[in-house]
Amino acid sequence: MRSTLSIMALSITVLLSFVLPAAAQDRAKTCQGPLPKGWEGQVYAVDGNTLTGVGLKSAIRLWGIRTPRLRGADDVETVPGMVTRAALEDLLAAGEHRVSCKVAAWDDQCRLVAQCTISAEMPRGTPAAAHDIALRLLEDGFAYGFELGSSLSWDSEASARYAHIEALARQARKGLWTLWLGEAEQTTLPTK
């Protein structure tokens, strides 16, 4: 009986090793299409590192960062997720929700992975300038670097810059860093 179960388990494992990669490739062909070089338009925050663009079919994931999930395993919104989404939405509002994005790739959820900027007065009263949205989230402590081993063809220093800015925010315990380092309770709201 045990040998029959072992053979069945092995057969299923072998079958899945062929079926799952093929299914992933089929999904990539159907949902992604040609990769655009860029996109400009009006966006809104879905969560702390994902944007939805007006008239854009795919969502945009900000290149080089990760943020807390908006919803936990129980599908209930988390305080860190809400705080990060609010921080992103505040950045977008400063630029009137208009962004310019350079697209790097598709991710496994068929989102565009892009480096996006807003033009805004930051701080207020200064001349409007382009601001890298992900870099601002890192700087304020609401994101951490992610997949920085891949570089951008148009910005070869982005990975090093993001890692450096993250380190400064972590050392200063900005944003969510006290929570991530275990120095605060999850219900404690961070300040900039």
In the sheet with the most strands, the strands line up as 1-2-3-6-5
The CATH topology of the largest domain comes to OB fold (Dihydrolipoamide Acetyltransferase, E2P)
Largest sheet: 5 strands, mixed, barrel
Poorly predicted tracts of residues = 4-28
Number of domains: 2
Global geometry = globular
Q: Proportion of β residues?
A: 15-25%
Topology order in helix (H) and strand (E) letters: HEEEEHEEEHEHH
Mean pLDDT: 84
> What is the count of β-strands?
8
| Helix/sheet category | alpha+beta
CATH class of the largest domain: Mainly Beta
First and last CA, distance: 62 Å
Number of helices: 5
CATH level-two architecture of the largest domain: Beta Barrel
Query: What is the helical fraction, as a range of percent?
Result: 25-40%
From the alpha-carbon coordinates, what is the Rg to the nearest angstrom? 20 Å
